[in-house]
Amino acid sequence: MGNKEQTFQKIIEIAYVMFAENGFEKTSLAMIATEVGISKPAIYYYFQSKDQLIAYIFDELYKEIQQDIAVDYKELTSANFKEKLLELGYKSIEAQGKDPYFNKIFNQYVLLAARDESYKSQLVELETSFLTSFVEVLQWGVRLGVLDDTPHIEAKAQMLALVYDNIGNFMLTGNQLNYRAIWKEAVHSVIQGGKDDK
After folding, report:
1. Bigger pLDDT: 195 or 189?
2. Which residues bind DNA (predicted)?
3. Fewest CB within a 10 Å sphere: which of 67, 104, 129, 159?
């Protein structure tokens, strides 16, 4: 990796932390440049404005979230369906435990969306795909015969999505709850009668 690529990556990493900790309003490009160890004029080589940097990080987060909630249906069988659903939540809990800045910065984008229509529409799109992916997973479970085809299947999927999302919000506040057990209970409430899981 060349010096320009390394500097670019360092700008992203430092901006990510500073935006998460201080917010967009209280973080300037000059502050980021100082932390990176470059001059303020030098940072403009990489980003023409703070807004451009904010947008770049958002795009990266957007892609990461979509990747995290993507499920390869070919991997799901009647034998492993429950285990894979548990893994989805456990993976998210572990990732958020390792990255204390994720929910902080994501909440900055939620605040930004309240006054910026383009961020609002992208967040609505992301939320919709997030909910849809859970609905599709449970509908696949119906096809596999793991779940009963009830009129409430969509509501069950949305409940799982809300639990999944809110675990991250609670982790952000520092509440020391047993998040794995909470996710397990949510999955068990949807898939009743299955064998006990790890």
Report:
1. 189
2. 28-47
3. 67
What lies within 8 Å, CB to CB, of 48 at 6+ separation is none
Output the pTM of the full model.
Answer: 0.81
Cα(112)–Cα(127) distance, integer angstroms? 16
User: With bands split at pLDDT 50, 70 and 90, how would you rate the model's confidence at 143?
Assistant: very high
Do both 82 and 179 map to the same domain? yes
CB count within 10 Å of CB 84 equals 15
Query: 94 lies in a domain?
Result: yes
% the chain with pLDDT above 90: 63
Residue 55 lies in a domain: no
| pLDDT single digits (tens) 4-19 | 899 999 999 999 999 9
Domain that holds residue 42: 1-48
Q: Which helix (H) or strand (E) holds 141?
A: helix 117-144
Helices marked H in 23-151: 29-36, 40-43, 50-69, 81-98, 102-113, 117-144
